[in-house]
Structure to design on (258 residues):
């Protein structure tokens, strides 16, 4: 049985599915979704305003306190801070290699902490309409965090493929529920209806495992590691060209994709 970019393996009857919601304009559609069949709904930064059914909220240290949800509204919902996601991120090689923006951080945290079979993104295409007169985020115009000048974010596509490959290694598929025409989140598209009905594990196609091993070895050889997660405090240590070369290796992992 095949879906877009995947082969279903008939092994078990239920899947643990996690939804990650970002702040792109199309995030507002989640308000109309029945998300009860997701094991967890993870919202990033301001996305808690777009999705009232969330049960995990993840945000970075510099996220303004006046944009936090009211404490009395949290109830039993989980708040995920750097204290939680930095150790998990480090299990997957750290921020320098994973890409220092919350779309990827949320993905790695969900992968390591929640152990899902599928992680589904929406509102995380990382495409912005600056200068077009259109909103960049569901709440209006915001800062395009993934597009800032950052040595870890030279290729959003490469970082997407890295996440996809490491998730596959752990038995998790990454999909994009977005219906937008363009996306820099380089993972297969899937419709919400298809994902809801799916009850069989997914084996991602189009990953060159030999290329994955080369990329991981190159990361290990380069040895860029910041245990605190605050890689920007040591950015002078990182060679942009060497990191770009590793991005090229991750881009090569998709060379046989259908």
């Amino acid at each position: 049985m095949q879906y877009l970019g995947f082969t279903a393996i008939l092994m078990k009857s239920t899947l643990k599915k996690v939804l990650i919601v970002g702040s792109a304009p199309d995030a507002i559609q989640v308000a109309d979704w029945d998300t009860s069949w997701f094991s967890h709904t993870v919202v990033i930064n301001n996305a808690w305003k777009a999705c009232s059914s969330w049960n995990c909220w993840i945000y970075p240290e510099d996220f303004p306190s006046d944009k936090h949800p009211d404490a009395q509204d949290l109830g039993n919902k989980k708040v995920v801070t750097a204290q939680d996601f930095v150790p998990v991120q480090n299990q997957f090689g750290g921020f320098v290699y994973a890409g220092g923006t919350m779309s990827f951080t949320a993905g790695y945290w969900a992968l390591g902490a929640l152990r899902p079979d599928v992680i589904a993104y929406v509102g995380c295409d990382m495409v912005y309409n600056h200068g077009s007169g259109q909103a960049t985020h569901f709440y209006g115009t915001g800062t395009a965090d993934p597009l800032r000048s950052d040595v870890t974010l030279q290729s959003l596509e490469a970082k997407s493929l890295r996440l996809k490959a490491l998730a596959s290694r752990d038995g998790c598929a990454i999909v994009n529920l977005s219906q937008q025409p363009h996306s820099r989140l380089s993972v297969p598209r899937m419709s919400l209806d298809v994902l809801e009905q799916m009850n069989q594990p997914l084996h991602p196609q189009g990953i060159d495992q030999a290329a994955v091993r080369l990329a991981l070895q190159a990361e290990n050889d380069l040895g860029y590691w910041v245990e605190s997660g605050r890689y920007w405090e040591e950015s002078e240590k990182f060679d942009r060209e060497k990191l770009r070369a590793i991005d090229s290796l991750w881009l090569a992992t998709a060379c046989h994709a259908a």
About this structure: Residues 2-252 form one domain.
